[in-house]
Amino acid sequence: MINDPRIKDYIPQVPISQFTLREFLENVGGTYPADLDETTRPAPWEFYVIWMVHALKTRTVLGQGMHSVVYRVSLRDTDVAIKVGFIEPAEVDVQRKACQIGRGLPVYSYIHRIPLPDDLHQEICPHCGPDWRTDAILRAGGNDGKRENLFDWCRYSYDALVMPVAEPVKKQDVSEEEEEALYQDALFLMSYASKKYSTFLPEIKSVLRWRGRLVFIDFGDAMLLERLFL
Fold it and tell me: Which residue in 3, 48, 150, 169 could disulfide with 29, CB within 3.0 to 4.6 Å?
């Protein structure tokens, strides 16, 4: 995967839990929360990959959707969520726009088409993954709810996105005013995406709470994945 002879000097020798969020993001090409408007620190792409894979060694499953799995990774000073799967650049752009209007989680880092170890790659695949992965997709009605119709994703590369960990929220805990404001912001984001991307419209179907605010997640469009397998 990596041919640069300098790479051995960048492989972390201690668990990721001994690094702070700033240290971690400096090594995966990310931005620290206080510097979200700054461009990412330039470094060889391979260095970012090595640190991302190293962090995912200590992963625990936080949640999952049809096209990705979200893992929790504990750092020295906080936890982060790392979403791994099919995450199109347009989806990331919409999440960043949502963050700008206070309705999305900040994107700390994003790596498109990241090479992963075989065990992690297979874990995300609906066809080759563990029962908890395939069962969740079938319960959601994916691929007509039939195991034999599950796609084999192992021939494709995945993407990785780092963001903060947010908390679940129940609908009964959301006021009518919050719900109406949420609805209006969802319309704005859909309009933004449809004007900028001719083939992308976000599926805003999940809401979490972060720092007291309701934020959207799941900005992916299933049509993109369906075309991938035609």
Answer: 48
Contact of 200 with 192, CB cutoff 8 Å: no
pTM of the model: 0.84
Contact (Cβ atoms closer than 8 angstroms) between residue 46 and residue 2: yes
Give me the residues paired with residue 73 across strands. Answer: 80
In the chain, the domains with their CATH numbers are 5-115+157-167 (3.30.200.20)
Distance CA 63, CA 122 (A): 17
Dmax of the chain from CA atoms?
Answer: 58
pLDDT at 197: 79
Q: Which burial class, exposed, middle or buried, applies to 216 when counting CB atoms under 10 A from its CB (0-12, 13-18, 19+)?
A: buried
pLDDT reading at 230 higher than 60: no
